[in-house]
């Protein structure tokens, strides 16, 4: 599968700002950092709202990072289709993430006309130690 993104990192961040501003409810903690053939990367800079007792990034925050990253990887390759929606997302929490910046790399495993299957790996920025791994399926609306 030879996928090429059709949106740039700047266009993807702009799309989040204009079409999905809810992602910035807690301030700009999510940012698209890369897009390439079959993948996209995002960064999360957690704030106090994202930390749970015990000093770790919360599970719902990691889930959101995986989900938004999958959405960005998909639209980077199909264009700014706001109504592409998650139909399934499974996540495994593997290690306690420290309250520090995290990066999610999301790869497209299959891109069909109506469904896409993606894989998301979350690590601390600058590390390759997985803290969470997710798989997602997205429904793509008919054109």
UniProtKB/TrEMBL annotation:
Please tell me whether the keyword Hydrolase is annotated for this protein.
yes
Q: Which UniProt keywords apply?
A: Hydrolase
GO molecular function, one example?
Answer: hydrolase activity
**What Pfam families does the annotation carry?**
4HBT (PF03061)
Matching InterPro entries, A to Z? ACOT13 (IPR039298), HotDog_dom_sf (IPR029069), PAAI_dom (IPR003736), Thioestr_dom (IPR006683)
Limits of the Thioesterase domain: 54-123
UniProt enzyme class = hydrolase
**Quick check: keyword Hydrolase in the entry?**
yes
EC number, as in UniProt? 3.1.2.-
The record's family statement is: Belongs to the thioesterase PaaI family.
Q: What is this protein called?
A: PaaI family thioesterase
What is the organism of origin for this protein? Sinorhizobium chiapasense
